[in-house]
Each structure stands twice: as C-alpha cells, then as structure tokens.
Amino acid sequence: MPINDSKYWDEHLECMPREELEANQLKDLKEIVQFAYDNSPYYKRSFDEAGVKPSDIKTLKDIEKFPFINKKTQRDTQGVGSFLGELCAVDEKDVVFISTSSGSTGVPTISPFTQKDFDEFQDTEARWFWQVGMRPTDRYVHALNFSLYVGGPDVIGAQRTGALCIWGGTLPSERLLWVLKTYQPSVIWTSPSYAWQLGEKALKSGIDPKKDLNIKTIIVAGELGGSISATRNAIEELWGAQVFDFYGLSDIFGACAAMCEYKDGLHIAENHILVETVDPATGKVLPPGSKGEFVFTTLRKHARPLIRFRTGDIGWIDTSKCKCGRTHGRIHVLGRKDDMFIVSAVNVFPSDVEAGIRSISGITGEYLIRIFEKDFTCKYSVEVEKKFDNLDSDENVADLVSKSLKARIGVKPYSVVVHKDGDLNTRSEHKSKRIIDERTSKPE
Ligand SMILES: [Zn+2]
C-alpha cells in the first residue's frame, strides 16, 4: 500500500515514461515467449509450424510474426495431454487457482494461475480500486459472482487497499439493499444494468439511493454501459455517485483495465498485457489508434501464457499520456465483434443503440434490439419501455426514439415498439440479454 495518501497505487509503475514501459514490455515479452516455447506443447508446435522462434523477438513489433490464438484454440487444447491442456506451461502442482469463462459462447474455458500469477493479478486489481479513489476509510461491497468467475477473487485486491470489504456475491436484491442500508458502504461493484435496476428497485421500495444510502463510487463491468456516457450519467444521477468502468477478460484478469477520474477510456495494465489492434476480417495489424479487434499477449502469466490472443472485442487504444499523469494506454471498447451488425453500410454496435436510447428521458432505459432481414437487407428494430409517469403518447415516444437513433447512428430503426414500464423481459441480475438476431444468413 502507498505510504502516504498518494493518488497512485504504484506511482513509479503507473507513470513511468513510455520508453521505459516499452523496454520493460520487451524484456518480459522475450522471456514469456521463450517460456511458452519451452514449456507448452501447443506453442512449441505452433511456432515450429509457423517457422518462428523466440529469438526472433528483437523489438515489440516482432510479435507480429507469431501466429494468433483464439477461444477455439483454448477449447481445442483444453484437457489435451493433461487436465489443464496443451496451452498450459506449468505442472498442475504449481497451479493454485482456476477460473472459467461463462460459457455463453460455447464450452467454458479454464484460466489457471500460479501463486505468482495470482498475486500479481491481485496487485493489479488493487491498483484499479485505488485509481477510482478507494481508500482504507471506505467500506466496499463486492457484488459479483464468486462461483468459478474470475471477477470473484478481485475482492482480495480490494482488501489490499485497506478498505473494509464485504463479500456480497450475487445476493438477491432485497438482501443487497438491506446491506447497503444497514452497513452504509461507500463503494460497490456490479454490472451497469444491475446498478440501474437496483437503484430503481430501491426507489420503488421507498429507499432514496441519494439520501438513504452512502454509495459514492459505483464500479461497473461485464457490459459496455459504463463506457457509454448517457448510461453512466443516468446511473450517476440515480445514485448521486461516480460511476467508473472496468474491463476484464476471463482469460486474463477480473479487471485488465479501468477508468481514472477523467473517464476518457480505460487505462490498461500494459506491464501485463501487450496490446495490438488488427483488422477483424484479415488479421492485418493496424497502427495504434485505429479501430479494430484487440489482440492481447500476456507478458507475465506463467500458468497459461496467451501469445497473440484474439479477444473478439473491437476498439482502439490511445497511448498518449493521460491528464491524470498515468502513461499506460487507454482502451476504448466499442463492442464484441460478434454483436456488430451492418445496416445500410453502417457498422452498428448495440452500444450505439443503447447510447441513443439512454439519452432520452421518459423511458426506463431498458431495451431490446431485434436484427432481421427484409427484402435481403439487414434491418433493426427496437423495443423500449415508457416510464410509468410519462403521459406522452406511445407514438410520440416511438418517434423520439427513432429520431435519437437516426441522429446517433445515421440509420433509423425499422420500427419502435413501446411497452409499459416493467413489461420488457430484459432485467437480469447478471448480464442482460438485449439482442435477438433473427437473420438466417449471418456474416462470418
Ligand atoms: Zn488517466
């Protein structure tokens, strides 16, 4: 823990000049690529087949010579040769923890940690909690699933800041509201949609989150809402609190990146992750700052190094120094590659639709997107809920939504369906399902 009340968890690490940061990345990259080649049967075979060797890495750009891996590589190699599979580079006796992915897009994949991997994971998490202002005087509720999920153990990182931590897990909302009211915690971490629903639920049960609760900081992750300013502002207004977005990958850490007080992208732990951005269709490496698919190489995780892992997330990275003084780049995540759809030659992410909807008052912010084909072209329609105290006609509400989406995305929805408050079945205590894709011919 920092000795004095520094604004940084580890000032030297977080603010070092880019040249020093990149020199450290190169040193770690050389080591991890060699370690992967020497200890993982998969990497040995794949590097040999591609005709590359660890000594080919002379600069950070040399990583571009190495083959990609993806979720499918993880699935195909899992359980092959040993319980942990061929991507793993240590004996099972050296592994102290595994988490698994949610399996929402197929067979769950295992992410193993050695003790050192785990300790460095928690030190990184502590850095994020500190970055959003959590201090030893805070009380923190960790309202994330503990079962198998990599976000559960982040509470250990939270404890490293010296804050009083309450291991909430996925408590039913009545019980969680009781915790918030009785223990008066100041910081909570949950998903953006759940932060919204919990606030609404509090109001409906006679608790005003602004007056009756003491939440000052809400950390959100798992969905894009925290990076959509309209959604963030709506949650901040409801709770009278600051909202900070975190970004994690079950394959790496509970949170790999986090907002600072300037909320202009999320600082990514570049001491652990080498970030590339590639064309999602061709895999061609794009210059930093271009929009594309993030490809991550883990620089220090020994149990299962990830060398050029295609994340499926689309975004861009800004490596200029932030106003907060930190030099680690800031990622802007736009959405999952698989969720993007193209309407009238415009690339649309569900997050664009969400931003358009959440900027309108008089509707609840719940929404459902339907993607379908009509006359061989892709269309989208949206369903929204009118707030119970909104006296405007459904036609007017639909017109407002349509205009807002046209202004933000450039393409009007095919139709807007307006439901009554509470009638849309999208509320969930975990990740909400908000997209129905009815296309018969989907893009690759
Ligand atoms: Zn910053």
From TrEMBL:
Top-rank taxon, per record: Bacteria
InterPro entries cross-referenced by the UniProt entry: AMP-bd_C_sf, AMP-dep_Lig_C, AMP-dep_synth/lig_dom, ANL_N_sf
Protein name: AMP-binding protein
Residues forming coiled coils: none
One matching Pfam family: AMP-binding_C_2
Domain AMP-dependent synthetase/ligase: 80-296
Transmembrane segments annotated in the record for this chain: none
Domain AMP-dependent ligase C-terminal per the UniProt entry, residue ranges: 346-439
